[in-house]
Amino acid sequence: xxxxxxxxxxxFLFGKRNYIIMLIGAVFIxxxxxxxxxxxxxxxxxxxxxxxxxxxxxxxxxLVIIGLGxxxxxxxxxxxx
Length: 81
Known about the structure:
Number of helices: 2
Mean pLDDT: 88
Number of strands: 0
Largest sheet: none
Shape: elongated
Structural class: mainly alpha
Oligomer: single chain
Radius of gyration: 22 Å
Number of domains: 1
């Protein structure tokens, strides 16, 4: 009585291309959050207008939304066999 050996390779849910696209999307999201960081004041009694600059108000949220769109595309893209 011998057991049959199953030498098949495990199959990943996504293809290599999908994982590369996901990595690119994650980089966009991380870059957006990095751009949002900072701008605060060390002294709570002093207002720092740097918190409302273009990079934090426009660029960073746009990068995060683009990154999320890339992630959705990576999930929905059909992997090449």
